[in-house]
Amino acid sequence: MGMKGYVMQLQPFSVNDGDGIRTTVFLAGCPMHCAWCANPEGCTQQLKIGWHIRKCIGCGACARVCPQGIGIDLNAEREKCIACGKCADVCPQNARVRMVQEADADEIVKQIQTHRLFYSYSGGGVTFSGGEAAMQPAFLNELTEQIYDLGYSMDIETCGLFDFEAVRPSLARMDLIFLDLKHMDPAQHKRWTGQSNERVLENMARLAELPAEVVIRIPVIKGVNADEENIRASAAFVHKILPHAKMELLPYHSFGKIKYEALGIPYDHPEFGRPTKEELEHLREIVRSEGVETADFR
After folding, report:
1. 12 with 66, same domain?
2. Three-state secondary-structure class, residue 185
3. Low-confidence residues in the chain, pLDDT < 50
4. Which residue range(s) make up the domain with 198?
5. Is the peptide bond preceding residue 131 cis, with omega within 30 degrees of 0?
6. Angstrom distance (rounded) from CA 264 to CA 266
7. Is 93 helix (H, G, I), strand (E, B) or coil?
């Protein structure tokens, strides 16, 4: 048995997180708390059970096996849940699901190997995401060391807030590093994510020490960071410290809303807006005018 860590899911056949067909490994835990987070289950390294009420048929199978005596309405008694997963094991509709579970590194690598033909024929590989993959540096190192020895391509998506030296061995094995830049203004960054961007910008600059290609991603959200001033300042900074890096502008979406429902967490942000295709292209032109090439993996 290998090292254990907290995993949200392994998503095979992913085509948006690097070249080719990939398996995305979502690791739990994140130092930021972005108001628009699409994976709220990954904010902490903690076992979590979700309840999709729309799928629930009220059969009571979950209640019959719960050691804590929780009824069908998990959200009404969530404080009692120990996330043992027994309810998820017996739910006939997958209304109860394991959203974060403990996983063995060796077992993850075995699952990844079952997809090797897709990597070979498409030029794909494995991408680490989250949550924040760098929040479990030892577990990430164990996984990347094994996968590197197998010869598979590896990418990582990160919010940039991590201990660089602790994660350096894993970063050095990557072919491509996606780093999110939420906002150039430190105060606005802290307002929307709960953290300053100082360490993020420092780590971004240090990516120049690594052989990997770099793509700086901005989740473009009207009402947060979609103004021309922020996009221009972001592009100018990237061009200055990482002249060979590309930038990808990702339009805001609320696809993660269903996860908030499954966790019994409210999600109501009418102030967040999705830019139109024309608005997004205009912002891309601003990035290119600052001397930065744009990328598109979507």
Report:
1. no
2. coil
3. none
4. 4-43+104-294
5. yes
6. 7
7. coil
Helix (H, G, I), strand (E, B) or coil at 92: coil
The residue type found at 242 is L
Distance CA 265, CA 87 (A): 20
pTM: 0.95
Residue at 223 is within a domain: yes
**CATH code, 122:** 3.20.20.70
Cβ neighbour number for residue 266 with a 10 Å cutoff: 7
DSSP bridge pairs for 4: 104
What pLDDT digit, counting tens, does each position of 113-137 carry?
Answer: 999 999 999 999 999 999 999 999 9
Residue 203's SS3 state is helix
For residues 170 and 138, give the distance between their C-alpha atoms in angstroms, rounded to a whole number: 9
Distance CA(217)–CA(220), nearest Å, equals 9
- Give the strand pairing for 213-220 and 176-180: parallel
Closest CA to 75 of 44, 52, 47, 107: 52
Count of positions (residues) in the chain: 298
Q: How many domains does the chain have?
A: 2
